[in-house]
């Protein structure tokens, strides 16, 4: 018999995972949709230190994201614009091209704390305008983990027929 999931998670009881990459990217965060029994809706909680960002500037072709700022101050970089944000602000990141690229930067003096909520498509393409990369991934419906994941740059494209026997 499987244990029933509780429909409530308290943020202060979550175990955050701290990570850092280079001098600009750092966060303590956790994804917890599965704890609520959610299969196709991602939800996370993050705490980003002053002067840092929790992810590279990126856009999704399929998935949509929503961020709710709980504490702290920051800048929401969205497309070619920058918006100052603080507690109570709700930020949308619809699917699209580079005009919907986004990320949060902590410009305050204390941790920027926020919730992130996203659709979890079975197949997704993300672009990273600052670095020229793209990410292609798939996952089986109901599973939070990617079954296929590739990060590359369009400059390394291959012809459709390249390497095919008899082509």
From TrEMBL:
**Pfam families, sorted:** Cupin_2
Species of origin: Sinorhizobium mexicanum
UniProt key word Metal-binding: yes
Q: Which UniProt keywords apply?
A: Metal-binding
Q: What is the lineage of its organism?
A: Bacteria, Pseudomonadati, Pseudomonadota, Alphaproteobacteria, Hyphomicrobiales
Q: Which GO terms describe its molecular function?
A: metal ion binding
State the source organism's domain of life: Bacteria
Show the CDD domains listed in the entry: cupin_SPO2919-like
Q: What is this protein called?
A: Cupin domain-containing protein
The keyword Cell wall biogenesis/degradation is annotated on this UniProt entry: no
Which PANTHER family does UniProt cross-reference here?
CUPIN TYPE-2 DOMAIN-CONTAINING PROTEIN, OXALATE-BINDING PROTEIN
- Give the residue spans that cross the bilayer: none
